[in-house]
């Protein structure tokens, strides 16, 4: 007589893994649909979970948006910190190194596509977002990255390569002049530009930045 085979139940996801699944699903849906058109049910369906499971970890859509946005903003800011350190740790040719930094500064657009898709939605939905969301995102993401860039630009000023009275201001000008045109023209990476166009925009931005902060002769 044949022995019946034991039925092995698939392992159940633990709370930490289940919570990560909810966050991943929310990130995907927010990136695709935006804040206004996303529901808890949409996120639950994306995650393959019941809506009650989603609200077990996050009480509402607002809390989910904050969690997703702050987590991904921190990841983008951390990437910016590494990029700034890699390209400004040992500057031997100011223009060439700033140009390489500008190119690298744009890589998160491709590396974090869902984050920047959410950012595009934020711009369109700014007046309908929960209070404080934009400020918290700016603090965790863009401002943090700018502070880290400012620290490294300060080193260049200390070495006499640039004249920078206010490093935070200089960092802001760098991102505006060198990366800003590419970000705007590509709609935060939604419509990637040709390499030659990116190179031209970065070169022009670096030239303007160096002129603006060149040490007095």
Order of helices and strands: HHHHHHHHHHH
Supply the CATH superfamily name of the domain at 69-213: Tetracycline Repressor, domain 2
What's the number of helices? 11
Largest sheet: none
**What percent of the residues sit in helical stretches (DSSP H or I)?**
over 70%
Through-space gap between termini:
97 Å
- Name of the level-1 CATH class of the domain at 69-213: Mainly Alpha
Structural class: mainly alpha
- Parts with pLDDT < 50 across at least 5 consecutive residues: 1-13
CATH architecture of the domain at 69-213: Orthogonal Bundle
CA radius of gyration is 22 Å
What share of residues are in beta strands? under 5%
Mean pLDDT: 90
* The CATH topology of the domain at 69-213: Tetracycline Repressor, domain 2
Q: Label the overall shape.
A: elongated
Number of strands: 0
Describe the structure.
- 71% of the residues lie in helices and 0% in strands.
- It is an all-alpha fold.
- It has a domain at 69-213: Tetracycline Repressor, domain 2.
- α4 (61-88) packs parallel to α8 (133-140).
- The model is unreliable at 1-13 (pLDDT under 50).
Fold blueprint:
Elements: H1 15-33, H2 40-47, H3 51-57, H4 61-88, H5 94-105, H6 107-111, H7 113-125, H8 133-140, H9 142-158, H10 167-185, H11 195-213
Helix pairs in contact: 1-2, 1-4, 1-7, 2-3, 4-5, 4-8, 4-9, 5-10, 5-11, 8-9, 9-10, 10-11
């Amino acid at each position: 007589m044949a022995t019946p085979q034991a039925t092995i139940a698939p392992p159940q996801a633990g709370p930490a893994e289940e919570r990560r699944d909810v966050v991943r699903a929310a990130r995907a849906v927010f990136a695709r649909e935006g804040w206004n058109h996303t529901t808890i049910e949409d996120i639950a369906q994306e995650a393959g979970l019941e809506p009650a499971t989603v609200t077990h970890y996050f009480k509402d859509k607002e809390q989910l948006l904050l969690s997703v946005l702050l987590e991904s903003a921190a990841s983008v800011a951390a990437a910016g910190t590494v990029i700034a350190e890699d390209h400004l740790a040992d500057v031997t040719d100011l223009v060439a190194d700033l140009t390489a930094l500008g190119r690298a500064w744009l890589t998160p657009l491709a590396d974090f596509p869902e984050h920047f898709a959410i950012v595009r939605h934020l711009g369109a939905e700014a007046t309908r977002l929960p209070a404080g969301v934009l400020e918290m995102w700016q603090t965790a993401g863009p401002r943090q990255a700018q502070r880290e860039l400012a620290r490294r630009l300060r080193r260049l000023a200390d070495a006499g390569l640039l004249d920078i009275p206010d490093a935070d201001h200089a960092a802001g000008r760098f991102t505006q002049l060198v990366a800003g045109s590419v970000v705007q023209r590509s709609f935060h990476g939604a419509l990637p530009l040709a390499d030659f166009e990116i190179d031209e925009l970065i070169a022009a931005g670096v030239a303007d930045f160096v002129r603006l902060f060149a040490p007095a002769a």
